[in-house]
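Give me structure tokens for this 252-residue protein.
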Amino acid sequence: HRHRAMMAGADRYAFDVGDFGKCGFLRSLADRGLSLGVVWYAVADEAHNLDGKHVAYLQERPKNQREFRSCDPGLYDGLRQAWASGSRTIARLEASGALPPGTMPYADRIEGKARTERELWFGRALTLLGRCDVLFLDPDNGLAPARLVTARSVSPKHATLAEVGEAWKGGHSLAIYHHIGRNGTTEQQIARWLGELRAVVESASISTVLFLRGSRRAYFVIAQPAHAERVRAQLDQFLASEWRRHFRLALA
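Here you go.
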């Protein structure tokens, strides 16, 4: 059974330059025989929000051909064709072939902030994606600061450290999306989150990749020992490719 694509809350982001980078990153990470599961943190509709408007990279200009299409022509052409054909939805993005072949998505909507419901929601994700080598956690805003996680409620736009720990203990390597905010420099924020993550996954090595277009985004990559060599090789290859125009390895 294939779950329905991510719902309306994140449709406003579909096809923006962040999605281009995200899909390119995932297509690289899932190479070398690693199966991928994607946990979309699907929330309620926010069509009034102006986020996700960065689609100029898809316009037919020589500069876009050089700077974007050269990174992954198949991805770029698929996104451009799907974007030009009509509505900006995650369903249309998935249909473009943007995600790696064989990707398993989990897109059940997060209904409200209740912690008990959230724990059930994430449990269903782990059940559905239990056989995937790598899980990509894709909340709107990234990892949740402590103030947004209480005994009764959890922000629907964030992934929690508890969820990271649960997925890690299930044997999955992880890639986690995090939106860089305004509370300190990029390096300071990454260093803080690395400290938090290391407390959850103990001695595992963590790589942090930064996407530099539009709003700055970080991807925390945590590899299980059985996957570490392949993940490192893929990241090295990715950052040495044309994608180096848009990504770099964080030094924090």
